[in-house]
Design a protein that fits this description.
By secondary structure, this protein is α/β, with parallel strands linked by helices. The chain has a single domain (3-183, 211-247), classed as 3-Layer(aba) Sandwich (Stationary-phase Survival Protein Sure Homolog, Chain: A). It has helices spanning 16-25, 76-87, 111-121, 140-156, 217-222, 241-247, and strands spanning 3-8, 29-36, 55-58, 67-72, 92-99, 126-131, 162-168, 176-178, 185-186, 189-194, 200-205, 208-209, 226-232. The strands form three sheets. Strands 3-4-2-1-5-6-7-13-8 form a nine-stranded mixed beta sheet, sandwiched between helices. A two-stranded antiparallel ribbon has the order 9-12. A two-stranded antiparallel sheet has the order 10-11. The chain starts with a strand and ends with a helix.
C-alpha cells in the first residue's frame, strides 16, 4: 500500500526548499504539501485558536506527479494540524528544507522543528530538515538524503516521543554523523534606532555562537557533514526531582 507523507515548513508555500523536499518524497508515496501562505520563520510552536483558519489548494510549478499543495493562513504548527485532520493521517511528517540551519538552542524558536514536534505529539514519525545559509541555496544534496532517511523511517518507525532533527552543510556533504543537540545559540542584541520622525524602533539580532562538543550538531555541520540528531519530547529532569522535592515549599 502506498504511503502518505505530509510536508510542512515555516518558510512558506513558495519556498524552493519545500518543493525540493516534496519532490524527493514523491518516490515514496502520496505527498501533500501544507505550508503557511507567508513566511513564518521563528514563530516556534505557536498555534491559532482565536480565529478561523483557511486552507486553499495551491498550484505550484515543477511538482512531481502525486504531489498536491495547500496553503494555510496560519502558523507552521497549524499546517501540520490541518494536514493531519483535514487531509487524513499520514504515515510520516517531514518539515523543511529550511532556509538556514536549526542547530542547538535554535530549536526552541524554530517553526521548522515545531512542525516535527507537532507530528510527534500526534503519534506520527516526524523529521525536520534544514540547510546552512549560502549565496546560492542548493537543496538537491539535502533532498536526496532526505528521501533515503524518510524511507528508512517509514520502514522501521520511530519510538514514541522521538523526533529527528537533520541539518545539512552547504555544498556536497562529506559524510553523516549522528549527533547530540549542541549549545549553539545567538547572542541577543537589541539595536535601538530612530525613524525620520524621531520615534524609536528596534532591530533584534546577534552573532551566532558555536560550541566545543565534538559530537554536537553544530560540530558535524561545521565539518561538512550531515547531522542527524534524535531528540526526546519529555523535558522532565528526572535526576533532579528529589532535589526539587527537598526545596519546593508547601502551601
Amino acid at each position: 500500500m502506498s504511503k502518505k507523507i505530509l510536508v510542512a515548513n515555516d518558510d512558506g508555500i513558495y519556498s524552493p526548499g519545500i518543493k525540493a523536499l516534496a519532490n524527493a518524497m514523491a518516490s515514496l508515496g502520496e505527498v501533500n504539501i501544507v505550508a503557511p501562505d507567508v513566511e513564518q520563520s521563528g514563530v516556534g510552536h505557536g498555534i491559532t485558536v482565536r480565529r478561523p483558519l483557511r486552507m486553499r489548494k495551491t498550484q505550484l510549478n515543477h511538482l512531481e506527479p502525486g504531489v498536491t499543495a495547500y496553503r494555510v493562513d496560519g502558523t507552521p504548527t497549524d499546517c501540520v494540524v490541518m494536514g493531519v485532520h483535514v487531509l487524513g493521517r499520514p504515515d510520516l511528517v517531514v518539515s523543511g528544507i529550511n532556509f538556514g540551519p536549526n542547530l542547538g538552542y535554535d530549536l526552541t524558536h524554530s517553526g521548522t522543528f515545531a512542525c516535527a514536534i507537532e507530528g510527534t505529539h500526534l503519534g506520527i514519525p516526524s523529521i525536520a530538515f534544514s540547510l546552512g545559509f549560502s549565496d546560492e541555496m542548493d537543496f538537491s544534496h539535502g533532498a536526496r538524503y532526505a528521501a533515503k532517511l524518510a524511507r528508512a523511517v517509514l520502514q522501521r518507525g520511530l519510538p514514541p516521543k522521538t523526533v529527528l532533527n537533520v541539518n545539512f552543510p552547504v555544498g556536497q556533504p562529506l559524510g553523516v554523523r549522528v549527533t547530540v543537540q549542541g549549545t549553539h545559540h545567538y547572542e541577543d542584541v537589541v539595536d535601538k534606532r530612530l525613524d525620520p520622525e524621531g520615534q524609536e524602533y528596534y532591530w533584534v539580532g546577534g552573532k551566532a555562537t558555536g560550541d566545543e562538543e565534538l559530537d554536537s550538531d553544530y560540530a558535524a555541520v561545521n565539518a561538512g557533514c550531515v547531522s542527524v540528531t534524535p531528540l526526546y519530547m519529555d523535558f522532565t529532569r528526572r535526576d533532579y526531582l528529589e532535589t526539587v522535592q527537598g526545596f519546593a515549599p508547601e502551601l
